[in-house]
Specification:
By secondary structure, this protein is of the alpha/beta class. Helix content is about 25%, strand content about 20%. The strands form eight sheets. An eight-stranded mixed beta sheet has the order 3-16-11-4-5-6-17-25, with helices on both faces. The protein has a five-stranded mixed beta sheet with strand order 21-20-24-22-23, covered by helices on one side. It has a two-stranded antiparallel sheet with strand order 1-2. Helix 5 packs across helix 6.
Amino acid sequence: MDAQSRGRADEIDPADQWVLNPRTGNYELRLDRSAAQQQPPVAAPRRPSSARPGAPAGPKPSSPSPSPAVPGPRRGDGPPGRRTGRKGGGGGGRRKRILVITGGTLAFLLVAGSVGAYLYYDHLNNNLNVTDVGDAGTGGFKKDQPINILVIGTDKRSGAGNEGYGDAESVGHADTTILFHVAKDRTNATALSIPRDLITNVPACPTKQPDGSTKTVPATKGTRFNTSLGQEGRDPGCTMRTVKELTGITVDHFMMVDFNAVKVLSTAVGGVPVCLAKPVDDKDSKLKLDAGEHRLQGEDALAFVRTRHALGTGSDLDRIKTQQQFLSSMMREMKSKETLTSPKKFFSLAEAATKSLTVDSGIGSIDKLTNLAGELKDMNLKNVTFTTLPVLDNPAEPPGKKATVVVQTALADPLLQMIRSDVSLTEVEQKEQAAKDAADAATKAKQDALLQGERAAAKDVRVDIFNGGGPGGSASTTLTWLQNSKGVTRASNLGNAPAKVDATQLEYAPNQADQARALADMMGLPASALKMGSADAAPKTPMKLTLGADFKGAGISLTAPQKAPEDIQRVEADKAVCAK
């Protein structure tokens, strides 16, 4: 089914259901045929003062409409590749536009529309597929905290037109996975691609069964990352758990799409511009294009993101770069004036995105997706960075037969630490940074003060150590390290903390500040990890150190670098790059 027919309701193109209400002067949505017929006749819009003399003031009708109340397509809403008249239509800010339901890939999270078309909500809600992943994610997000969304592209061959890709009975894998981290202040975001052939551990995963029961899929060690979805009955929650164990980053929500999403969404937006540095003829993906610029949609767009052997060295890592370039271009296209002012494209995108999308129950409605999109809609694309988790060829495989990769710890650790600490990979606008600095000045001054002054001697540091989310045995190994390597003899291992925490924290009293500074120096704790109480402690009272999910091991600093490693792969979403 093509994008046009997917966007119809009762054989009426929803893009043509915007009706001018002569009483208000606004365009309004009329989805019900009989309701539309009861509306008063449509008056011609007033000609803007800037219109040239003699130009038609209102929309030019195309063919007889089903109802006198339904106007024909407006100028600028013609078929992809053909533009008529000036960009956009009349009415300016008075026109009510359909909310683009932002799903499928992170591109659509950045294009939230304006005023909601509430009569359309139930229809779009019915398009969504919702999966209950239990406690795999947080189930929500807070406005004053970062947001982490896992975007999963599955290679499942379901859907019309996908039979020819082979392996039709496959339950699918986590073929393309991007962890989309949105900064606390919403000025920037990092999109971290995770290679499908990465060797990692997939933790035990509780999954909901059709009868309502829960089945736990056993953990698997040393397996490909892409087996975290589909295989042995694993659901997207299993991929979320795998990502958290791999990166130390808690995922709030997931969004999953299949092959059809690329085809229908690229068509709905009118094609995605791409650039090739050389001609491509890939018999596997069926992509055949000359060097230069192209606008791709449908099957051609899918072939572009699937091509592997025609670009770079033919590895999946090079395909990840191609996919990042495609998504960046799609973002630019969707945030362009031509898309944002076109009700036809808005409707087509809403239909295509929701029909292609599977989400967790925490965002399993249009209202919830709208709230999420509202957090992201004003982000500047120059502050969105795509990068890939640094990896190396698997040393366990013989030369010439390298098929999998392992994490390149030296580059991956600082990169992940930056994401966990909410440090941007790009420079945000100067005015945004200035505003953020001004708002945080008091907090920063307090945190900086905590790290100043005298430090206690190691032998005088008293601390109880709890494991609140670090690797198993972290409290014990940290105690041994402090005693043997740092001379902290008055430390104790108190085992597991009462509750898990995402970030390591050191709680201390005002009269223990010298001890806190000394321990922070030894362990590389950031200022944000220091939590000072309001009252002094009694003599010989120990501080409380809780090792969080960000803790990777004794002696590994938790202070995030302020600059990304130079050797990581990266591309900014606002820049057009030619695939090589």
